[in-house]
Amino acid sequence: MQLCRAGRGEWARTTIVFFAFLLGAVVLAAHLFFLQFDEDIATHYRQSVQKRWESYEYPQGKRGNILFRDGSILACNRKVARVMVDPALVRDTDQLSETLAAYTGLYPEDIKATITGHSGHGALVAEGIAVEQALAIDKENLRGVFTYYDYERYYPHGRQGAAATIGYAGPQPVHRTGLEYTWNEHLTGRDGRIHFRKDARRKRLPGSEISLEGKEDGADLRTTLDQAVQMICEDELGRAVGTNRSDWSCIMVLEPDSGEIRGISTSPNFDPNEYAKGNIGSEFNVAVHRVIEPGSTVKPLLAAAALERGWLDANRLFVCNQRLMVDKKQIREAELNHTLGDSSGVPISEIIIHSSNIGMAQVAMALGQDRLLECYKSLGFFHKTGVELPAECSGLSPYYYAERQAGKSVAWPKRVIANAGFGQGMCVTPLQLAKAYCIVANGGFLVNPTLIARSDEGGGGADGVPEVRPPSGELLMAGMGLGNRTLKQFVPEGFGGDARVRVLSDATCDEVTNWLTEVVNDGTGKKAQLARYQAAGKTGTAQLASDKGGYRKGAYTASFIGYFPAEAPRYVVLVMFVNPKGGRYYGGDVAAPVFKKVCDRISYIVEEKGTEAGHAS
Fold it and tell me: Is residue 272 scored above 60 in pLDDT?
């Protein structure tokens, strides 16, 4: 009886085991069946295995360099590293934190908090660290620690390298300013992708690449900036601002024949290497983002345009008293003791040389609203210049706000016309003013200011970027292997293409140059006289408008703009200081001496290039 019971028990256990194995076999068979024939389940397990034993790396395509005209570096890339930790692989968090702190300079408790507070596999412990530090960490062979190498933007000259113009390129596309923004598509490279297998410690297995997509570096961008000229502009502006403590200021140097910008220094300024650390707010480029009332600097320009069209007789005499009543408002000279001529009057040349507001107010009223506006527009005022920078201002024509409110052109009061004759009640950017003086300096041809070197200049080809400005108002770029790319950029109607557009005749330009030479020799610009060459130029002292209407008391824009050598101009130089402090505010006292220093230093470059040309010939 007991044996029978024992036999039945043994049979039951055997049956249970048998059916357990049978069930397991059925489950296994079903699993294999679904793995083979159910695509969703098969994909799930395949991805699970790949996630465990395979991974990806994305080699960074380097951003193209931005270069000076001679090919030296303005903006480039430097290799940096970031340190990641997988908390699941760490055995001793305290010890690891101490070790990493020694290489990264971080506090051990901060590192520990980062590791323990992270729920995934990749806790970012440090980024932007030097390559040498990362390599030292690699040699430690720390469990769960991974180092990755990337490139970050680096500006060798910092705030001394035309920072507001070159701009800044951060790790995200939205962090772009200046040329880094405008030419972002041209400069940006394409990242690659490496698919590989890894070991149990998540380290890449040598020779385990499954697939490889190569990276592509961005193209270089060669600017028109001359390194020596740029350093002179930065140096002299820094000294002057340190003395006069102006609200904002700039120095620009252009070649009048081509409109190429050889130097551009602005203040306030910033160090693009420090930009990501919070120095935000000074990245404005005052040369194109700010507008000012140009004051007396437009007097010779208006006179030139009017003479060219026969609307002004060079021999006509204007009586320049100390005051002029227009619409029951008084117009006066900058200085109450400023008298010019007698009751018989003076010609336009004397009005320009001695900078008479009364005289130019009469010239403007003689021209009238339509002719006055046409003269200014013909010189490029109230239009964007089309320079390759973002957010360029177009300036403000006289009576702009009243016309905008009315939604149409309206008749200007006489006082508005009179004030516009000496650069008051209208606004231009510093670059627009420099562009207008290029027209006079180059013999009367319109130019498009540019920062991008043409491909056929100074080595061009691979480093240079062909520049095309089609009439459509789009800037077409053909880069290194990047194909043709179109970048939206405003170009004034009729300003496109390579055809030269004449605005003034040679005779008119020669006449204006004679006036501006006398301004420097015997007029308001005596402090701009150069040591080695004859300069031609004009002072400007304009009141600063108030946000509440009218003008700010005791606040002025002091400027001087001119060119040299006067007989064969090579450079147009603009110097401008807005609201200088310290008691002096006239353009002849504040800006003219800085113009002299800049031009005297550049004159050695002119001589050197002339000598080189002589040797070459």
Answer: yes
The residues spanned by each domain of the chain are 64-154, 227-616
Per the CB < 8 A criterion, the answer to whether 591 and 539 are in contact is: yes
Give the DSSP letter string of 340-355. BS-TT-B-HHHHHHTT
Distance (Å, whole) CA 361 – CA 309 = 19
Structure tokens that stand for 557 in this block: 């824009």
In three-state secondary structure terms, 590 is helix
- A 10 A CB-CB count for 503 gives 20
Residue carrying the six token digits 């504040």 = 590
Q: What is the pTM of this model?
A: 0.80
Residue 523 CA from chain centroid, whole number: 36
In angstroms, rounded to a whole number, what is the distance separating the alpha carbons of residues 487 and 475? 5
Q: Is 515 exposed, middle or buried (0-12, 13-18, 19+ CB in 10 A)?
A: buried
**Res. 211 pLDDT band, cuts 50 70 90:** low
**Residue 481: what pLDDT?**
27
Q: Quick one: DSSP state of residue 541?
A: E
CATH topology of domain 64-154: Penicillin-binding protein 2a (Domain 2) (3.90.1310)
Measured at the CA of 564, the angle between CA 563 and CA 568, to 5 degrees, comes to: 110
Q: Report which listed range, 27-31, 54-58, 401-405, is most confident.
A: 401-405
Q: What SS3 class is residue 417?
A: helix
